Amino acid sequence: MRVLFAGTPAVAVPSLNALIDAGFDVVGVLTRPDAPLGRKKVLTPSPVAARAQELGLPVIRAAKVDDEAIAAIAALDPDVAAIVAYGALVPARALTVPKQGWINLHFSLLPAWRGAAPVQHAVMAGDDITGASTFLLETGLDTGPVFGTLTETVRPEDTSGDLLERLSHSGAVLLAQTLGAVDAGAAVPVPQQGDITLAPKLSIDDARVDWQQPALAIRRRINGVTPEPGAWTTWDGARFKIGAAKLRSDVTDLAPGQVRFTGGADAAAVVGTGSHGLELLRVQPAGKKMMPGADWARGLANREDVVFE
After folding, report:
1. I want to staple 151 with a disulfide (CB 3.0 to 4.6 A). Which of 79, 131, 229, 305 is the partner?
2. GO CC terms on record (predicted)?
3. Rounded to whole angstroms, what are the CA distances from 252 to 45, 293, 305?
C-alpha cells in the first residue's frame, strides 16, 4: 500500500514512525514549509520534515494544498493519504487524488471537539475521558465517517501537552491499524453519532486568566493552554505567565486577583479567585525565565500589595 503522510508538528512524528514500522510503503511526506524559530529566526524544518529526511523520504513543503502541491502528490501515486495535524485544510479537488482517500487521525472522540484544538478544549472543559479517532476526510470540518477510536483518561493534573503526548503514541497505533484494515478491505467507516462540540484554534486572548472565575475553572484553563499559547495575567502593566497551579480550598479570604506570599521553607504564592485560593506552582515574570512559584514567593515575601489584573 502506497501511503502519503501529511503532518507537521512533533505530535505527528509517532504516526509517521508507526507507519514505517508497520511496513507501509510511505512514498512521501507533505508538511508545512520551514519556519523561523528562536531569537535569531533561523529557518527550521518541521519535526515531520526532519524525521522524513532522516528516513530518506521525499518531502513536499506546502503552506496549503494548492494546485502545485496536488500535482506533487499525484506524482507520487499514493493509494491513500494519512494525515495528522498537517495544519491546513485539504480542498475537495485533492480528496480524490489518493485512490482510497485521506484518513485523518484526530485527537478527540468525534463528533466531540471538531477543530484545530481538541485536546486543549477537552482539558479546559474538564472532560474526564477523551481519546482519538481515525476518519475519512471530507470537505466539512472533521465530519467524515469514523473507522476507529480509542479512549484516554484525562488526569486532574494533565496539561494539554501531557495529554497530547500520550495520545500521539496511542493514536499512532490506531492509525496504523486503520490503514491495515483499509489495505485488507476490511475497514467500514461509520457515520458520526452524538453531540457535536467545536474546538477552534486558541488565541493569546483565550489564554488570559479571569480571576473572577472559580479556581477549578482557572486551573483547567491554565492546564488547557499549556504549553501553547500559555496562560497569562498582568501585573504592573506587564504580562505575567503562569505554567502550573494547584487548588487551595483552605484559602477563602482573598479577593479575586489578590496575591498572598509566604516565605521560608513553606514559601508559596496564593491568588484569590471567584471561589477559593489557587497556589502558583510555575510562574514567569516579565523579562525572566519560568521558575517555581515558591522561588518567586520568597523574593516577595514581604509584599502585600500585589494584585493581578
Report:
1. 131
2. cytosol
3. 49, 20, 18
